[in-house]
Amino acid sequence: MSGSVIPSSVRRIAVLGAGHVGPVIARIALDAGFEVAIAASGSPENLELITQVVMPGAEARWAADAVAAADLVVLAIPLHRFPTLDPGLLAGKLVVDAMNYWAPADGVVPMFQGQEVSSSETVQRQLSQSTVVKSLNQIAYQDLEDGRRPAGSPDRHAMGVAGNDAGAAKLVGEVVDRIGYDPILLPSLSAGRILQPGGPIFGAVLARSEFELAIRTTAVHA
Amino acid sequence: MTTSTPERPRETTGGSTPFPLVLGLDTFGDHEHDARDLPLSHAQTIRNVVEEGVLAEQVGVDFFGIGEHHTDDFPMPAADVVLAAIAARTQRIHIGSAVTVLSSDDPVRVFQRFSTLNAISSGRAEVILGRGSSIDSFPLFGYDLADYEYLFEEKVNLFAELRKGGPVTWQGNLRPSLNNQDVVPFTENGPFPAWIGVGGSPQSVVRAAHYGFSLMLAIIGGSPARFRPFSRLFLQALEKFGREPLPIGVHSPGHVADTDEKALEEFWPRWLNIITKMSKVRGFAIPTMESFRFEVGPQGALFIGSPETVAQKIATNLKTLGANRFDLKFGMPGLSPASVLKNIELYGTKVIPRVRELLAD
Q1: What is the spatial distance between Cα A201 and Cα A186, in angstroms, rounded to a whole number?
Q2: Is B7 within 8 Å of A56 when comparing Cβ atoms?
Q3: What would the pLDDT profile of B168-205 be if each residue is shown by its tens digit?
Q4: Which of A55, B93, B108, B221 is deepest in the core (most CB within 10 A)?
Q5: Rounded distance between C-alpha atoms, residue A83 and residue A126, angstroms
Q6: Judging by beta carbons within 10 Å of its beta carbon (0-12, 13-18, 19+), is residue A180 exposed, middle or buried?
Q7: How far apart are CA B207 and CA B160, in angstroms?
Q8: What is the pTM for the complete model shown?
């Protein structure tokens, strides 16, 4: 399915996308002690001021350089831009898909429209030489920082992590845990459909028990 | 004061502001219900908004803004027409959009409508431009939502040229070029104030600075303090582009009543109803009483309660964000005219003086 090498651990993270979501993910990754590079579609010069003020400690780079140096790449670009992204850029990489598809709010993207598969399965099919894990997509960017809690907190919130490659999902789960969420591993990208817009988890900030209840309830209705 | 040394944003305040304090009100033309909880006509709701604008001036509010919307809950597609009616019946209050969805409008027409409003009001008009987080206008006018960033970028570029005044020469992809074109009416006293509403994208902050527009932070969920780095980003970007400092404002929803309990009781069912509808359109889960309580609390984005509660929260957040302006988005579809008028009266007579007092210290 993929020619990716799953790293033994994650130290360096590249965030692709500097809109609403990317800078927030960069900040929480920095707080968790990761080395973070951020890239958008253009030159890093355009991002220097934003990076310095909004994500101090991160490095603005060209996308290719950021990806090449990274153990893990977070895709946080607007989903309608994804069809123009060169899959070769991400070949061999572990990729976290933090994007969402919801046509009523974002417009129709033909690659994702009318598919019987989850949006991350479409992303994986397109990025055939990468290993895709879906996560960091379901809690709204404005809640992502304040929602973090240290491991062991009684009011810790859950974060779904869905992947076809169990080793990759486990590794992303460790990153999610370090960032400040309780990872809940789902066995496939297809099962990750529950994390999408329109599902019971999207946009909600849930404890593990509530998250697991939502999964069970949805499975009964499915 | 700005500094080029990177600092952790969460550990610093937004700093002081050299601009005078402005305390305003915004409405989206929220569809009102009568005392029996039956919806008024759209026409009556619009006439009520005119009265609300007039009352706002009488009770000492600095700015009255109307946000463009296109739904039964917010029947307010031609906000500038309503603003003109308010302008004709007021003398002092500033009036403007909150926001104009520039992405699905023609910048030339927007400029003409607001320079006309500026003429009618003798220089009290302002425009707040937005990309359109409320998406109803896109299908209505035949725009593709997938183009919304591109549409906004090019149209802001043209609007910035128009706002300078004088003949315009401009080229883009979305409309025919303008070649040394006069666009009337000319303004009497230079460009009218223009703002860009920003929801959470740092690139939008830099864009506002690039074009010399003031920054309006639309904080409608989550902690207002997380916008703190945006104030610094805006000031540093202005400096980088060789511009003077410009005002920073905050727009957030809320409701003021005599007591905290009464304000919450009036607001919550209307809020739940509208957010439930939005949840279906946007695909997110319906909020709970718990999440509502968080938003009402000190860490959240809703300004709901007694005049003292709301004034304290406004003052705290203006200080935190280094902002000189706060616009309370009042009303909510289903609230009665009586409750809305009471909110405006309390905001003008109690909240505004108290915020001024708190910030004078």
Answers
A1: 13
A2: yes
A3: 999 999 999 999 999 999 999 999 999 999 998 999 99
A4: A55
A5: 8
A6: buried
A7: 11
A8: 0.94
Average pLDDT over residues B22-46: 97
A53, A202, A205: best mutation site toward chain B, by most B Cβ within 10 Å? A53
Rounded Cα–Cα distance for residues B299 and B226 (Å): 10
Strand partners, A5: none
What's the mean pLDDT in A8-24?
96
**Rounded CA separation B70/B33 (Å):** 18
Q: Is B36 on the interface with A (CB under 8 A)?
A: no
How many angstroms away from the CA of A109 is the closest CA of chain B? 8
Name the class of domain A12-221.
alpha beta
CA geometry: angle at A210 spanning A205 and A212, to 5°? 115
- Indicate if the pLDDT at residue B3 is higher than 60: no
In this model, does residue B8 exceed pLDDT 50? no
> How far is A2 from chain B, CA to nearest CA, in Å?
30
**Interface pTM (ipTM) of the complex?**
0.92
Q: Is A142 on the interface with B (CB under 8 A)?
A: yes
> Residue A64's CB: how many other CB atoms inside 10 A?
13
CB contact under 8 A, A141 and B200: yes
Residue B138 or residue A28, greater confidence: A28
Please give the backbone phi and psi of residue A17, each rounded to the nearest 5 degrees, phi first. Answer: 120, 130
Among B3, B145, B252, pick the best mutation site for testing chain A contact (most A Cβ within 10 A): B145
Amino acid, single-letter form, for residue B62: D
Beta strands in A99-170 (DSSP E): 131-134, 158-163
* DSSP-based three-state secondary structure for B203: helix
Q: What is the identity of the amino acid at A1? A: M
What confidence tens digit (pLDDT) does each residue in B239-284 have?
999 999 999 999 999 999 999 999 999 999 999 999 999 898 888 8
Q: What is the percent of chain B where pLDDT is above 90?
A: 86
Chain A residues within 8 A of B9 when measuring between CB atoms? 53-54, 56
Query: Do residue A49 and residue B223 have CB atoms under 8 angstroms apart?
Result: no
Q: What pLDDT is attached to residue B85?
A: 98
| Terminal C-alpha separation, chain B | 20
**Sequence spans of domains, chain B:** 13-360
Give A-chain residues touching B203 at CB under 8 angstroms.
18-19, 40, 50
* In the block, residue with structure tokens 């074009």: B211
- Evaluate if residue B14 carries a pLDDT over 80: no
The yes/no answer on whether domain B13-360 falls in CATH 3.20.20.30 is yes
Spell out a b/e string for A102-112, using b for 16 or more CB atoms within 10 Å of the CB, else e. bbebbbebeeb
CA–CA min distance A4, chain B (Å): 31
What is the bridge-based pairing of β-strands B194-198 and B100-101? unpaired
Smallest CA–CA distance, residue A210 to chain B, in Å, is 13
β-strand A12-16 against A94-97: which pairing, if any?
Answer: unpaired
Q: What length does chain B have?
A: 361
